[in-house]
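Before relying on records like the one below, remember that each one covers exactly one chain. Contacts with other chains, cofactors or solvent are not represented anywhere in the record.
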Amino acid sequence: MNHTPNTPPRGNIPLPLAAVRQWNDAHTENTKESWAYIAGLLAGILIYRPDITEELMLLIGVATQRGVMVRKGGAK
């Protein structure tokens, strides 16, 4: 069971609202492509926001894990 929050904690990590909306869309769609898109989007933000590298890498890891779980059929 995945215990990560459905929405990234926007109050703690200054993400663009579009990224938060895409995260919510990926959660709704729950496909490997949607989670891969999120991981790529967050990697792109990383280029412009190196000050939040640790937080972005955590979220990239969560998105990647969810994409893998969808592929294996373990995510709901």
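The two ends are 9 Å apart (CA to CA).
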